[in-house]
Design a protein that fits this description.
zinc ion binding, zinc-finger, histone H3K4 trimethyltransferase activity, two-stranded antiparallel ribbon, 177 residues, single chain, alpha+beta
């Protein structure tokens, strides 16, 4: 089903949702989304291709950061737009390695800065996501602030100062979404 056949709606107390504008048959595919951003978790690094996520015993690693691995040159080329800035950040913090949540937030920041739009954003954009900051305990907020600081350190080779970012990009808020 095309996204035009779906509509967004807000349900008070429950958040946002999608519903069909027409009858659907059992088993009919309603929606297929492309993720806005994703990463391979630290545990899976080296065992799956960074682009297609295929398990392969013969992966080729990025010659720059030596972290990302790909099943072939076509996957590496397709992934380069998402990996290019991350690659510089990974090289700059060696031998340290960021938590998965920080790497993912970094990819989100880079995509927001590029003003990249993926097909799934026709229904919801990143800015449409609801922050849950008001529901968090102070201890949880402190933990997210620590992650936001870690993100700032991780991105420092590409983003020298958080004040250079558009107001819509707030490191803390990215973690609350």
């Amino acid at each position: 089903m095309e996204p035009a056949a779906l509509e967004r709606f807000h349900s008070p107390g429950k958040g946002n949702g999608l519903r069909s504008r027409r009858r659907v048959r059992p088993g009919e595919l309603l929606y297929r989304g492309v993720p806005f951003a994703y990463i391979v978790s630290k545990e899976q690094l080296g065992s799956v291709c960074e682009r297609c996520l295929r398990r392969d015993g013969n992966l080729y690693r990025c010659s720059q950061c030596k972290v990302a691995k790909y099943c072939g040159s076509s996957c590496q080329k397709e992934a380069w737009l998402d990996h290019k800035q991350e690659c510089k950040c990974l090289k700059s913090i060696k031998p340290n390695f960021p938590p998965d949540s920080v790497r993912l937030a970094g990819r989100i920041v880079f995509k927001l800065l590029r003003q990249s739009v993926c097909p799934s954003e026709r229904l919801y954009s990143f800015s449409d996501l609801q922050s849950n900051a008001e529901l968090l305990s102070e201890e949880m907020k402190d933990g997210l602030r620590h992650l936001a600081q870690t993100l700032q350190l991780y991105l420092k080779t590409e983003i020298h100062d958080e004040s250079q970012l558009p107001p819509a990009i707030d490191f803390f808020q990215i973690f609350t979404k």
